[in-house]
Amino acid sequence: MVKDIDVRDTRHCETTALGVLLRHEGIDLSEPMLFGLGSGLSFVYWDSKSMGFPFLGGRVKPFELTRNLAATLGLDLQAAETTSARKAWQNVAVPLDAGRPVGLQLDSFHLEYFTTKVHFGGHVVALYGYDDERAHLIDTAPQGGAVTTGLDSLARARAQRGPMTARNRSFTLTAPAAPVSPYDRIVPAITTCAHAFLNPPIANLGHRGIEKAARQVPKWLERTEDPGTDLPRAAALMERAGTGGALFRNLYRDFLAECTGLLDSSRLRTGHRLYAEAATLWTEVAGLVEAAGGAGDAGGVGGAGDAQDLVRAGTLLDDLARVEREAMAELVAL
């Protein structure tokens, strides 16, 4: 067991694990600051014929935030992947036995404590101890904070293959002898994030992706055979499933608010104001999507849904594309 592990009231899995690993290295930053310094905010509208229903994502792909944060703060990131179960365990047992917590990317479906049994291969936890039967993990506060799962279930979660999974990925972070001041890296982290958001390589990413969502969401009732299940689930993924609320916009709003207390910049204050507006709008969109799935028979399962709620959601998404584009245009010029 790694000693003196500090459990916090955190909402997003990757920043939860990063906080555990960095505090062990003597670097104590808020969850929004970790998210922002990792240039974590993004947007993706993801749909394909093989998917049961479209997916709206509000952050960079799994593990990219960790790579970004390590580069920003000059941390030594040691990551390993393997298809061997024996090697996968060795990769975590060695640092744990040396007193160092380890980050893991895995599929949350197999974790015994997890409250929602769906496959999500981009989940990240911090492993800080084990015994002959169980692994001791730190997850988000809604999932229990300090939790345990059986070693067999952990092995299945790590080895699962599918969308967003990695091959038994584990990682450690080590602070440099002369640590970089996180607050000196705020502007580069913000401008990197803003530039990527404003210049997406394809039309379903960044502000262009939100514009695409504005066109597609009003047609979602045609896209589903079970609106009473698919629409509330989509809303939950936006608002409650480890996003910190408002599809990660609450986290980025709070990051920018913290930055305004450290840097005197009218552009930064404008960006914060606009992302506070965006966070409110995203919560409204999630509410409309959920309401659209709840119309129909008792409980909404198999119900016809309310197309007007989705039309209103599309209108708000048009507003969001504009608001976030304006915010990032201010922030990229810091």
From TrEMBL:
Any coiled-coil regions, as ranges: none
Butirosin biosynthesis protein H N-terminal domain boundaries: 12-140
Residue ranges of every copy of the DUF4872 domain listed in the record: 152-331
InterPro entries: BtrH_N (IPR026935), DUF4872 (IPR032369)
The organism's place on the tree of life at top rank: Bacteria
Name assigned to this protein: Lantibiotic ABC transporter
